[in-house]
Batch of 2 targets.
Target 1
Amino acid sequence: MEQVDLKRLIVVFFAVSLTILAYQYISEYFFKSPKPTQISKTSNVETKEKPNNAIYNYKGGINLLLNGQRQSANVNNGVLLHLKDADVKFSYSGGRIVYYYIKNFKQNLITPQEYALKIFPLEIYTGDSSLDQAINFDNYNISVNKDDVRMTLNLPNIKVEKDIHFDKEGFISHINISLSGYDKPYFVMIGNNLNEEDLHTHQGPVFDINGSVKRLDNGDIKTYKAITGNISFAGEESRFFFQGLKGHINSIQIYKERLGKEDFTLMLASFNGEALMFFGPKEYDWLKKAGLTDVLDFGDFRIVVEPLFKFLYFIYIKTGNWIISIFVLTLIIRILFFPLNYKSTLSMSKLSEVAPKMEKIKEKYKDDPVKMQEEIMKLYKEVGFNPASGCLPILVQIPIFFSLYKVIVITADLKLAHFLWIHDLTQKDPYYILPILMGITMIMSLRLTPNPDPRQNSVMYISSIFFVFLFASFPAALVIYWTINNILSFLQTYLIRKVLLKDKLGAPVKSSKTK
């Protein structure tokens, strides 16, 4: 049997950690996502950015009327509807949504790109440019009755009606759009996604076609893409927000636009006139209420990430506190891994007991490495020590760690969660206190189960310092999880050594006779 070298295992683990750190910093500094543009709360939002004259040529697509008439339209005049959790403004010009402010998140869902082009949700496109200009730029009559908005426009031979019924919070609404006197298909503008810090999450068009959720990146769309099929929902998403429609959608069209050097997408949808409209944060309760839970991007490891997310959310709903939810999850993980930790602690303790014998073997066979390895392996077998036992409890938690990372970066609710000096658990600790505390808890655990070889201890202490810098840029919720995990691991190991193995660790080790 060949010996498993503990030093090599540590080096491999250290190298993996270094790779993670390098990847994170390379991604952040060389492939950095553009910083989200902050929008003020005022409804009359203007942008200094002007539309680029070099508009993509949409062969076979609809004319989006990106012309002077659009730019001259006055979108500041309109009706502002105050809902419980959102403020929504409809312009008289075109009967369009020109402001959608989410109060808790202090975020306007109408993007700077939309303001620059003056292209907004609820615009209607028939493919007839002259008709579309009238529908989207003429002034509507707008009436409001509590949470209901009705917008009407009378044209020769055609009457346009847009009815929207909001729930009291303002994220979910039921819309009914009709063009009396026009019996051909038409498209309704959904809009553009926010430009948030993505942390490797998807931003752009997302839709469910034939029971399968598809996500498109800018690179997937050359200039224009039309998709037809059984589409149950379609919209634009960012890391924490989604805006789109759910219903019997016949077709969607996605257009790529450019302002300056930045490309972005605009989505239109064709449906029977009735649909559920969702504009808001991707909070699980609201998505579930709207039947849009598939909007949550659980990634390639959905089989692990989704149950983890639902468990955390279940505890959060019961307790109302994300820190308690993280603590309960960590406690359950430590209980499940207790047998593994028990065997690891017992194995490492046995190694400490036979350390003097190991030194004698190394000294005796220093000129015969092969014989030295054989004798060391015999000693390991004699005392029941597994060289991989020290790293195994950490290695088996790595899938959980990365799954939890995914959960944290997609959970909009955590953005509103507070913990002492931290006001957003999806962001890093601004004062780096948590990573330092985490490093201290790692060193505490190492001191409780020191390695007989001082060199190995030095490597582990250096690794702890390295992890402080690694976790400094991680979301605070993830650092809290790892810190709690270290504390529970320390208490668990202390219980094993001082109570459960108190007699066993003190027993002398019997050695076999050597020839």
Target 2
Amino acid sequence: MTRREAHRRMTSEEQARRSAERRTYASREGVRSATRERAGANRAARHAGAPQHAAARAEGAAGQYAAQRTTRKRSGVGKKVLIILLLMLAAGGGAFAWFYHDVNSRLSEGIDPQMQQVLVDSKLDQPFYMLLLGVDKDADRAEEWGDYEGNWRSDSIILARIDTANHQVTLVSIPRDTEVDYGDGTSGKINGAYSDGGAAHMVEVVSKLAGVDISHYAEIDFDQFIDIVDLVGGIEVTLPVPVSDMENAGIDLPAGTQTLCGGDALGLVRSRHAYDEYGGGDFFRAANQRMVIAAIIKKVLAQPVTSLPGLVTAMADGVITDLTVDQIISLALAMRELDTDRDVYAGQLPTTSQYIDDVWYEEIDTEAWIAMMGRVNAGMPPYESDDEDLTIGIAGSVGADGNSGAVDYGSLEPRFDGAVLVLNGSGIAGLASEKADELSAAGYDTTTDNADDFEHGATQVYFNGSSTGAARAKGVIQILGLDIVAEKNDGSYPANYSVIVVLGTDADASAQEGGAEADG
């Protein structure tokens, strides 16, 4: 890859302007090795020294628990029938086929022909990654430079992890000035990947950067953003400080909670100069973009179920995506219980600002980025603590406790649904199957297997996600008659289950001791 020597390091004044009070990050040469590595190497580095179950988690629980497991699942036929009925209702009955084809054609119109070759298939009911791009195709730029893809750059780049089973969404912003390997022996700013090779190239670059497979993609033209926000009746946001940028974004918003129309919302996601006094305006803008996305999700999920097909139809002209209309409705139905105040996590790729050949770049902190993506892959908040998010208290944020992952466990009502992994850690033959049957009868989808050893005396219950997972764990504890409090999974167990139960000998003191093949 073609390299450039640093022209000079930032002065203290420049550092303050670009990114006040930011951490000291890794060397640039360390960054290079990270951006060259593909997903396999990054995964290996992330999980080095991790607990034994982490490998199974990264592979979707396919590794350690693939050998001898029994799964009890409930039918999803009812939801499929509902989606078909909703689409038929929106189409007026007889025009179903035409309606379905028309909406899907509009959603995929303009999509990069190479996109399907770079996206990786995944099931919507398993955690998956989706790339969200905001591309500025304003009329002034089109008039000056021409209206074609090579002139556009993506100014909003967000890698989203979507976990329908645990009703959880994680949004990780990637600064547009991040320097990356383009894959052809050259490097440049990541937003240039879009103009250099289209959306498909951007997916490849981000996939390589994050070390994850990307299964879906959505792109919104900022000029269409106004219609989308107005379509859902405006969005509610909370601004810690006033945001005034009349010259560049046409907004003058007070601090506090307020409802924004489409025009003001567009100004908010575009504005960075409103934060010039704090330094690093791009970072505060990215935080506002994540807040606005969460607000839109909240409004969409609050719509009546019968209005979803019409809503997707109305949005079809403003969004480009590989998702079909039935997939979008399926996702919306699966995520209707998402609590955006507690179950949406947010963060940003950790970088340090450098001035290279008279151009500002964001250089990746490799070690911090690997740690962050390890947490994201495990269904945990990107930041280990809110202290790592330097936009808090200045720009908008997602949720009341979305970054810390805190859960008010005592106030939750128990839930009796979701996927539960029951591991026999007691050595008592048939114990996991017995307990899984009890949980299945209560409404859970259960999978049984043996734990890594049979030395567990006390039963332990862990949950993934935030409030939804914790509520399900509370229900599991109630069904099993345990007198314990569930703990959040720290990445030691798979992330594609809402709840993990590790049965100890205390789960059934009267049962007979079994051998090593306790549960098959």
